[in-house]
TrEMBL record:
This is SDR family oxidoreductase. Belongs to the short-chain dehydrogenases/reductases (SDR) family. InterPro entries: NAD(P)-bd_dom_sf, SDR, SDR_fam. It comes from Paenibacillus yanchengensis. It comes from the Bacteria. Coiled coil: none annotated. PANTHER family: 3-OXOACYL-(ACYL-CARRIER-PROTEIN) REDUCTASE (PTHR42879), NADPH-DEPENDENT REDUCTASE BACG (PTHR42879:SF6). Pfam families: adh_short_C2.
Amino acid sequence: MDLELTGKSVLVTAASKGLGKASALQFVKEGANVTIASRSIEQLQQAQAEILAATGKQVQIVEMDVRNFQQIQAAVRTAAVDNKLDVLVTNAGGPKGGTFQQMDDADWQAAFELNLLSVIRMIREAIPYMRQAGGGRIVNLTSTSIKQPIDGLILSSIFRAGVQSLTKSLASELASDHILINTVAPGRIATDRIFELDQLKADKQQTTLDAIQAAALQHIPLGRMGEPEEFAKIVVFYGSFANSYVTGQSVLVDGGMVKAL
């Protein structure tokens, strides 16, 4: 299938590692002109080198903290080619873990800025460049908590759900501009973030990481964690121009883990 991405300008945020980097790599493989953004210039340079080694193609890098509005503006401008941006993939690290009673106002504000306000700002900045391009694709990376809250991750569950509500709302508002917007939510994908959360859970329960992961796999019909590349392929399809009629939707890449309809 031709995903119609050759020569398209793509911005992927939080892309120096994990799911962001995997998604950027897949866009490069499809012939897109990709810009990756992250807080760490050193990690960006490492990701740039790894993508070059894997594809023979160079990606553009830009230092950007998703909580910094000026840096968001600069990243979008940098990614736009001839003032045109075709694809935006919004992504950010997860917020602090814990229960409702453990969170204070500062925790809620920090999570709002990291996981919801950042997405609002990135999309708002990208829209004029997509209109200039005659249309575009937006893919928001969230979590399976948009369908089923995750115990101990209340901040993520609340604000990721907000992103999905934003996606639904914007699907109608942006349709006349030929901009399609969707959400792709990872389940248990083998990334540093998952291992970090599993280790925290193991420490809390005074057990081993292996025990926590074995228990988690019992809830996944496919019986294993997903690989970043598997997730990235779904992101790239929804962010492609082969996707011409799906907007406002959420797809879970979770091996069947979430049972919600």
